[in-house]
Amino acid sequence: MTENPGLARQMWHQLEPLHALFWYSPEVFAEAGRLGFAVDTRWPSYFAWRAAPLGAAGKERVSAAFYSFSPRMVAEHIPAAWTVAPPERVLEGRTRAVDGMYRTLLGDGVGDPDLAEAAALARAAAEAASTAGRPIAAANADMPWPDEPHLALWHAIGILREQRGDGHVAALLTRGLDPAEALVSFAAIGAASEKTFASRGWTDDEWSAARDRLASRGLIDARGAATEKGRELRDAVERTTDDLAYEPWRTLGADKADRLAQLTMPILVKVLETGLMPAENTLGIGKVQAPPR
Question: What spatial distance separates the first Cα and last Cα of the chain, rounded to whole Å?
């Protein structure tokens, strides 16, 4: 139990959209196309962009790290992505894509002293994030830091969000939720619709089988809604996730975290004003509140 359990979740909600815009930005799709990836959907480049820090990883390693994606969906894109562009080229393209995205979003604001201050604070938090047992966070933390503040800010948020995500996987494993069950149980508490979670590639039969397994444990009812026991389990998962993601913010301190939130609020507003971010997402941001302590 942390002394300020809501801070990690608060900062995640604040910073995640600044990073997640990447998955929907026209500048990113354009760079993916230049690298040779199909851009009719975001998935061919998504798997390449996110897995590239791991090197030319195969489908088993990427499935393990990404956890909630169907291994079959991962296998549709990995390792084929590395025949389109090897990881080092993908990472170079990723930097160009972030640069184009933020320059479009912020304009002359990329040179704003407030942005440089925000990047420095986010970097301090990211450098305090333990990567032990966290493969995706560690792979990103092992990359060199960009010099320009807007690139450093995105990189720092990426380390923090992957550190949190790796910890979330640990929390799911601890509570006995396999990849499909993790999504079904999250849908059961209203985090997002089953249609939204279908983007992770599980078939209807696999979803139904996971629902049956959860029902046999008394975690969801006949309608697929979480029981009291199921909500308690999901609350425990989120509490553990928050606790495991707290160390960077404890090190940074509440005052500096608050300053980072203030500095990034105008950027968050700009991100939301683009209209590119989906109203509903598989992370549950905007729908699921911090669990009771």
Answer: 9
Q: How far apart are CA 146 and CA 159, in angstroms?
A: 13
Q: What is the domain partition of the chain in residue ranges?
A: 5-273
In total, the chain counts a number of residues equal to 293
- pLDDT(5) > 80: no
Q: Among residues 35, 49, 47, which one has the least CA distance to residue 72?
A: 47
Is pTM, for the whole model, over 0.85?
Answer: yes
Task: Give every CB contact of residue 253 below 8 A, 6+ residues apart in sequence.
Answer: none
Q: Is the pLDDT of residue 132 over 70?
A: yes
- Cβ partners under 8 Å of residue 191, min gap 6: 282, 284, 287, 288
Helices 228-244 and 5-20: crossing angle in degrees, nearest 10, is 80
Higher-confidence residue: 179 or 195?
Answer: 179
Joined together, the tokens standing for residue 186 give 């999250």
pLDDT in tens, 73-106: 999 999 999 999 999 999 999 999 999 999 999 9
Q: How far apart are CA 102 and CA 106, in angstroms?
A: 6
φ, ψ at 262 (rounded to 5°)? -65, -45
